[in-house]
Amino acid sequence: MGRHRSSSIVPSSSTMASKKVNKATLKFGGETISLSKSKTQAAIRYNPGMKREKKRKNTELPEQIRDFEVVKVSRGLDQKLDALRAQPEVSVGTHVWVFDGEEDSPMIPTGYLYIEFKEGTPYEKEQALIEEFHLNVRQVVSADAYRVTTTPESPNPVKCAMLLQKKRIIKIAEPEFMAKPVTGDFNPPTGKFIGSQWHHENNGNQIPIIDIPNAVYGTHHFKKGADAKVRAAWDELQSLGSKNIKIAVIDTGFATDHPSLRGDGTKIRNSFNAANRSADVSPWFQASDGSWGVFSHGTSCAAVAAGAWDSQGVLGAAPNARIIPIKLDVLSDDAIQKAFEHALLNGADIISCSLGFPKPVPLSTYVSNYISRVARDGRNGKGLPIFVAAGNANPASNNQPRPVSDFAAHPEVMCITASNSLDESSSYTFFGPNTFLCAPSNGNEGVGITTATVSASGGSLVHGYTSRFGGTSSATPLTAGVCALILSANPNLTLAEIKDILRRSADKIGGGYDPNGRSPKLGYGRLNALRAVQMAMGNSGNSGSGSGSGSNTGGNTGGNTGGGGQTASQRGKVISKFLNVRSGPGTSNPKVAELLQGDIVNLFEKVSGFWRIGTNQFVSADYIQVIANNGAPAPGVRKGKVTSSFLNVRTGPATTNAKVGELKQGALVTIFETSSNGWHRIGDARWVIGTNIQEV
Question: pTM of the predicted model, to two decimals?
Answer without folding.
Answer: 0.57
